[in-house]
User: Which sequence fits this backbone?
């Protein structure tokens, strides 16, 4: 879809650019999340499981902070993940009163498969673009990554 290029001074302050970016990122994200959703997990549960896969065992409070969700909400998600065998609870060696949650091998496999399916779909969509359009996206990656640098 060809669009008119805005002069850089207009692009910096444009509500149109902000709105279009917000919409396209959200729509692409939702579209890719629907790909390969054969496990019946909501987005929040998948996000929590993916965080555990990348970080390993964590306390529920730490995971809730990382996911930016309320502890009771996360607790329900983790209970569902434990029931499905994707997450295991284990005692916290540093504090016997607390417990840690960690991904199981099955949980790791689920995340890997979901990522693979979504990556294949994104690659398929990128390959529909012209080489010039793909180069434009490549050039935008670093500034887009800078937008979320403080979220990590």
Assistant:
């Amino acid at each position: 879809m060809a669009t008119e290029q805005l002069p850089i001074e207009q692009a910096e302050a444009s509500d149109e650019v902000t709105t279009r970016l917000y919409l396209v990122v959200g729509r692409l994200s939702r579209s890719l999340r629907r790909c390969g959703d054969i496990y019946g997990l909501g987005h929040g549960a998948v996000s929590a499981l993916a965080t555990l896969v990348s970080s390993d065992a964590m306390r529920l409070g730490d995971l809730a902070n990382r996911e930016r969700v309320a502890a009771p909400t996360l607790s329900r998600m983790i209970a569902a993940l434990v029931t499905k065998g994707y997450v295991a609870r284990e005692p916290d060696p540093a504090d016997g009163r607390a417990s840690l949650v960690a991904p199981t091998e099955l949980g790791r496999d689920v995340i890997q498969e979901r990522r693979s399916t979504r990556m294949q779909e994104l690659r398929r969509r990128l390959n529909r673009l012209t080489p010039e359009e793909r180069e434009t996206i490549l050039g935008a990656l670093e500034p887009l990554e800078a937008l979320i640098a403080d979220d990590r």
The chain has a mean pLDDT of 87. The radius of gyration is 19 Å. The first helix runs from residue 8 to 13. Helices lie at 8-13, 15-34, 43-55, 60-67, 71-84, 105-127, 131-147.
